[in-house]
UniProtKB/TrEMBL annotation, chain A:
It is a multi-pass membrane protein. The lineage of its organism: Bacteria, Bacillati, Bacillota, Bacilli, Bacillales. It comes from the Bacteria. This is Simple sugar transport system permease protein. It is found in: Cell membrane. InterPro entries: ABC_transp_permease.
Automatic annotation (TrEMBL), chain B:
Keywords: ATP-binding, Cell membrane, Membrane, Nucleotide-binding, Repeat, Sugar transport, Translocase, Transport. SMART domains: AAA. The lineage of its organism: Bacteria, Bacillati, Bacillota, Bacilli, Bacillales. This is Simple sugar transport system ATP-binding protein. Residues 5-240, 257-501 form the ABC transporter domain. Its main location: membrane.
Amino acid sequence: MSENRLTNILVPVFAVILGIIAGAIVMIISGYDPIAGYSALLYGAFGDRYYIGETIRQVTPYILAGLAVAFAFRTGLFNIGVEGQLIVGWLAAVWVGVAFELPKVIHLPLAIIAAAVAGALWGFIPGFLKARFRVHEVIVTIMMNYIALYVSNAVIRSVLSDQGFKSEKIHPSASLRSEFLQSLTDYSTLHYGIIISLIAAVVMWFLLEKTTTGYELRAVGFNQHASHYAGMNVNRNIILAMVISGAFAGIAGAMEGLGTFENVSVKAGFTGVGFDGIAVALLGGNNAFGIILAAVLFGALKVGALEMPSAADVPTELVDIVIALIIFFVASSYLIRLVLTRFKKEGK
Amino acid sequence: MEYVIEMLNIRKVFGNFVANDNITLQLKKGEIHALLGENGAGKSTLMNVLFGLYQPDGGEIRVKGKKVNIANPNVANDLGIGMVHQHFMLVDTFTVTENIILGSEPTKGGQIDIEKAEKEVRELSERYGLAVDPKAKIADISVGMQQRVEILKTLYRGADILIFDEPTAVLTPQEIQELIQIMKALVREGKSIILITHKLKEIMEVCDRVTVIRRGKGIGTLNVSETNPNELASLMVGREVHFKTEKQPPKVGKPVLEIENLVVKDARGITAVDHLNLTVHAGEIVGIAGVDGNGQTELIEAITGLIKSESGSIRLNGKEIRNLTPRQITETGVGHIPQDRHKHGLVLDFPIGENMVLQTYYKEPYSKRGILNFKAIYDKARQLIREFDVRTPDEYTKARALSGGNQQKAIIGREVDRDPDLLIAAQPTRGLDVGAIEFIHKRLIEQRDKGKAVLLVSFELDEIMNVSDRIAVIYEGKIVAIVDPKETTEQELGLLMAGSKRKEAGVSS
């Protein structure tokens, strides 16, 4: 048992190391200095208080997006629609933040709840279609991403602004920004969202592992037939899983809308956070704690990469390649597992 | 002494597990040789070594006296060794001939010479009395016929030595008899056969010699004419085994399950259960005998609420339960040992402990206000594992890691523990060895003696005859006869199952 668990931890670690090595090779081939490149990356992510603040800020939506993907996955569903659920969550949060003037204790929770509800609704639709008509959730969620993107843009133009490209700034009473956290991190954009995302991770763990609802969701995820036999309502659980998953994604959108940007603007394309959430969930083994670690890695890569062009002349595209390589090695974890077990055998 | 195959002191090790420990098997020309052992005894491993799928870690293989190295199945084919797999490897949408020639197609000018192939297949089929239509599509022929196609496949490739892997597991009693005739015809023509099985009756009926293996070790080779089923069973299991399950006459009480005019359609919308009537009383075991596909599955799924029925009535202790949800039906007092334990019975990726509360997790003490109480769950699991002799490293082990027999014991433990008034057991011993079968039969009879109603569905006539107090024969979705197991024979049951009307007196329904 414990040996198994060790392998489960070692596999993603090895995947990351292999990804970094492969990234170094790519850098050498393209004529860049990998040591300078990775030093710049590391400095850009953790080098001083400001960078640490920025990294944590970037980690926040990654945790929530990863939780959203993982929650659906644990119930046997592929929620590719985290991106769309995040966008509608962002929109809803900012709308509440702009439209109302309330005391902070009411306004901020209300905005976050609005985001969760919007994301949940966006998750409900594919869940319902899957449960009722057996329409595959992957197709529906992909389409829902586009609907979310363009509906959000239309609403921003015609409702939240006067044919402009972004909404007004939200009222301070709905903001997650914190002067205290900013002063702590040399005026980065760090906000209270990280606390919410950590709470969300605990909520996901508790819900799945400790409650009867989680027991049902996991049972349905593993074996729908046995769950039906055992008297569980399979369709209800499918919808519920997508709704909860969507709510997590919606809150991820609220982090951007109420914390990082404090507004919402017309987007030319997807934010990418929702799709990165798939990789975060995969690397984190669909487990709440693993997702936090994976999100830290992704956040650090994303933020640290900004430093690479100026400090080491390495283009940011290369960082995307490294991230892709890491995902590649995680996805081919079977190979790493094979090498690890052979290694162990020979060590005996 | 002339042996066509000699496997001498074969040893095969997987990690720390010794699957074959110096096993010797010698096959004479023209004999039917049984390889007998419980599930997991190492029969399949040994045959996979012979067929070139595994390489032995020790010992040697001789074919017709010559030492050989069977590196892969192609080598086995070249040596004239053919295997009739338990799970058929056929392409459903191809014809019989197309399946047989697959991989060694005769060609004429770059095109497959299908006519020549068909002629050859027809000749082979006639020679061994297989009666296979070379032009039929696999999807359109019965399971028994598909098996003959598998046999033809090995013959077409020139096999002299045929390995049959549990060939009767999927056949009806009549088909089994036909297969036995085919096997006898094959040895008359000079073929040699190794029959992998754990069914003693078949060995006694068809085999010349038998090699018994137990937990990876060779126990010995006997002449079938000099042994008996009891001896074979105790050699196989390693202790005394009782075939005739001991039981007292039933104390039949009030009706528990009453089914009237039940109509159920299958997934394709075809009527599978057709105005069926059946009553099961407290304190009796009613066995449903029938050929697979005559509505048994639909009947059980309708009773347990897994599928909806069209019309009729299902009453449990007088209460109408037709088309209630599975949970409502479970709570009314129905226990169900499902036919497919992997599909319905267990969440294989859950620990065995969590599987023990699959229907009761939402009740106290297993949970309170939506929060699971793992101490109560695992206490219950430990109790059931002890009581039902589930062999598992611990209660946290995933159900997937357990053997079939132990998975089944876990399911039976869970179902019986809920103390249902009606226990439905669908093929409860399928794929299990004699030790586990004996255990499960005892538990079913124990429930009966506690005054519960038991409905048993099985394709094994032995089991039906042995365990039931009444036998209901199902044919095309109807109960066509109800017979007393003490007053019937397998032949009579076989005929009734095939749809012929009962002529003798004594029909009671």
